[in-house]
């Protein structure tokens, strides 16, 4: 749960405000009662940041008997490993559920959704109560049906988990069932409102304000009935963002862009520092003193200025380690953007142009799990050279699928010259996929003869994989009705080019030496 602001009239700092029940609490109560009767149930509370989702789940499970357990895994991988050990009478708690189901191409998210569906279905595992919280835009992504039949439907199992099932009115009634249970208990997703403006809810707030200074202050100062957002420090956070000095504003904007583009919640300090010049301008950055940079980091990360709530960029690692290679600026290794600004970024910065410095900083400093989504985002933005660098980094970190993203990446004239030596080096180290991609890229930029010459040169040294690729390439050229010397080879004006290297390759094939024997072996 979010830290509550330190109210001037509160005697005990950190005490939770009096809980105000709203409509979603009634729906959640029905889920809990269903579990207490011995049936598995699930509820995913969906709402914006700081609307009370987590607190609602916590209040709801207080009525469970003492023999119930609470299991809150920290990741999809941990959940997959430990889920078979989960016994009946367990609450499975998935806070920020999108982090469990949206796993950036990893199969762990879809697998977890499939296994949770099975756990909830099996009578021998009951009763299980699955609770979770999720922001609306993540929910929309997880529940979206692919637009084309050919698209991978990686969220199919999650969509089934989050489907809305409606019971008929004559079901779930009787002496051994919940009295008066209606169709609403079948809804997997329960919306949480942003405000406290409903008349009966407002009366509860006014009554609570008589004894609780947190509610009294929020009622007096919050706008549009957004009381929990105010108590979570939202007003102070927005005010600090609005009036932030140039460098501090740049750090926050960089964090907002990184989060909306796909980086995980823990943002490396080195990544934010490297991206900063793109947000304030190189000239302004060069004029900043060390004291001004240190002041910017302090401005964005000091919780005392947000009345105890999480600041715009809260530290999530021990202080004092510093940024690698630098003895000033950040004082922690990673920072976390406040949920309120995280949510706002996906609205107010949706169409902002991303500076080139951010993509370059991401290639150097982004967490491994963020490389593929950031590369995809750069590709969507048309920053093809930057996307290629990010895909290269992803491959270097073991994401072999990124090689085929490179193969199909547009704008080759912008990145081929820089990337081809890297692809060739990987191929010569034994990466067959890199060899295939290198040949594909070389041919697509008019360097087919060079590709053929490279393959046959490698084949002559005993690289059987290069021989096979060369034979395949030769066969494809001949099948296309053109001589292998001119297939795919064009000059700058689009006309045929002399096939010098291709001719040398053909000469090797015609000799009685290793080239001819290699072709026979490859066939």
Percentage of residues in helical conformation? 40-55%
Main β-sheet, spatial strand arrangement: 2-3-4-1-5
Number of helices: 26
Q: What number is the mean pLDDT?
A: 80
- pLDDT under 50 segments (min length 5)? 9-13, 164-184, 481-523
Question: What proportion strand?
Answer: 5-15%
State Rg.
Answer: 29 Å
- Quaternary arrangement of the chains shown? single chain
* Broad structural category: alpha/beta
The CA-CA distance between the termini, in Å, is 65 Å
Structure write-up:
The chain is an alpha/beta fold. 51% of the residues lie in helices and 7% in strands. The protein contains 26 helices and 8 strands. The protein has helices spanning 23-36, 53-60, 76-82, 98-101, 108-121, 136-143, 156-161, 199-209, 213-221, 227-231, 234-242, 246-261, 269-280, 282-287, 290-301, 339-348, 356-365, 371-380, 384-396, 402-407, 412-428, 432-444, 448-460, 464-479, 500-510, 514-522, and strands spanning 41-46, 69-71, 90-94, 128-134, 189-191, 266-268, 313-315, 334-337. It has a 5-stranded parallel β-sheet. A 3-stranded antiparallel β-sheet has the order 6-8-7. α8 crosses α9 (213-221) and α12 packs across α13 (269-280). It is flat, with a radius of gyration of 29 Å.
